[in-house]
Amino acid sequence: MTSWRGSGHGARPTAAGLLTLAALVGAGTAHAGAAAPQALPAGCSGASPITCHYAVPPGDYDVTVSVGGAADGQTEMWVEARRLMLPATRTAAGAVATYSFTINVRQPEGQPTGQGGAGNAGLDIRFTGSGPQVSAVSVKPATRPLVAYLAGDSTVCDQPAAPYTGWGQMVTTAVRPGAAIANYADSGESSGSFLSSSALFPALLSKVKANDPVFIQLGHNDKQTSASAYRSNLTTMITRVRAKGGVPVLVTPPVRRLFDGNRLTSTALHVNGVGVNLPAEMRSVGEAQRVPVIDLTAKSKALVESLGPSASAQLFLRSSVDGVTDNTHFSQYGATQMGGLLLQIIREQNLPLAAYLR
To answer: Could you give the CA distance from residue 201 to residue 207 in angstroms, rounded to a whole number?
Structure first.
C-alpha cells in the first residue's frame, strides 16, 4: 500500500521503508527492549519541538507514530492548527509506544476563512513536551472513515495561537482511528453567517457522506438574531445535512463566565440582545425536527456555577496566566473540560461518533 514520507522539500508517495504495524485502535503499546533509532523519521526535524511535514493533498489520513527512544521522554503530539492528538505521554529509556489516528487535512488548515493565517499546505505534525521523542511516522490515505464535522464559532474552532483554545481542538484525543474530526468552526460566526459563507457550511456540506455526524453549535454571535431567523437557520442546516445522508446534531452553546452573585446571568446563558433564549430555541428546533440535542449550555452552567466566580476563572482566559481576561473563550484546560462534557453526552446518547471514542 502506498504511503507518504516526508522530505525537507515536501513529500512524495513511496512504498519503501514503511513502518509495519498491527491494527491499533486504543492506547499505544510500549515495547521495552532495544532502544529506538536515534535518527528522526523522514520529513521531521528539530529537537524540542520536533516538527514533521508531509505534502499530502487535502483529505483524511491514517497516521501511525512511534514515540520513545534511548532516554526517558515525555511527548505530546499536535497536528495542523493546534489539534491535540496525543496528550503528554511518558516513555522509559529504551521503550517505544505506538499510536494510530485518523486525521483530517484541509487548506487552510485552521479556521476555514483563513483567520489567523492559512498555515502550510499538507499535513503538519509537532511533537512537544519535556523531552519529545519520535522514532517512526507513517501516513497513508484513510479508507472511508467516519468524519465528524464541527459547525461552530470561536469556542469550537481550531484556534491558531495560544492561549485561545476551542473545544474542537481537544476532543480529538478521544477519537479512535477510523474516525476523524473535521473542524469547520470559525471565529465570529452567527447561525446566519455560517450558513451563507461559501467557506463554511456549503464547503462542509459538500464533503458530508452517509452517516457522518455534523455537530452544530452556533449562538454566541447571534446577539441580535430574532427567534424566527435563528430557528430558520438551524432548520435549513438540518434539512441540508439530512439530504446528504448525514446526521445533524445540535449543540447548545457553552456559557460565558458572567456572574450575578453565585449564579450566571441571562447573558451568560445566551439570552440575546432582543430577548431570545437561544438555547431554548435550539432545544425546541431539535424536538420539532427530531434531531439529537447536546445541551452543553446546561452542562457547562452546572460546571461553572459549581466552581463559583473565582475557581471557574481557570476555565477561561486570565490575565495572570494568559495575559488577557476573557470570560467567553477557553484556556486549554477549559476547552478540555468543555470537550469532555460533550463527549460524555455523545456516549450517553449513543450518537454516531460514540463507537469510535476511546
So the answer is: 10
260 and 354 part of one domain: yes
Q: pLDDT, tens digit, for every residue of 18-57?
A: 222 222 223 333 333 444 345 899 999 999 999 999 999 9
Total domains present in the chain:
2
Rounded alpha-carbon distances, angstroms, from residue 228 to 57, 140, 174, 276: 41, 46, 36, 10
Q: Where are the beta strands (DSSP E) in 195-312?
A: 213-216, 247-251, 259-260, 263-264, 293-294
- Is 11 part of any domain? no
How far apart (Å, rounded) are the C-alpha atoms in residues 192 and 249? Answer: 17
The CA-atom distances, in angstroms, between 247 and each of 292, 307, 344 are 9, 34, 18
* Boundary of a domain, candidates 143, 159, 186: 143
Partners of 7 in the β-ladder: 10
- Cell numbers describing residue 24: 491499533
The rounded Cα 117 to chain-centroid distance in angstroms is 18
> Is residue 334 domain-resident?
yes
The model carries a pTM of 0.89
Region of 73 on the Ramachandran plot (φ > 0 left; ψ -120 to 50 alpha; else beta):
beta
User: CA angle 348-354-357, nearest 5°?
Assistant: 115
pLDDT digits (tens, 9 = 90+) for 242-254: 999 999 999 999 9
- Residue 12 belongs to some domain of the structure: no
Instruction: Supply angle C-alpha 347, 352, 358, rounded to 5.
Output: 50
Domain boundary among 143, 173, 201: 143
Same domain assignment for residues 92 and 227 = no
- Which range of residues forms the domain containing residue 276? 144-358
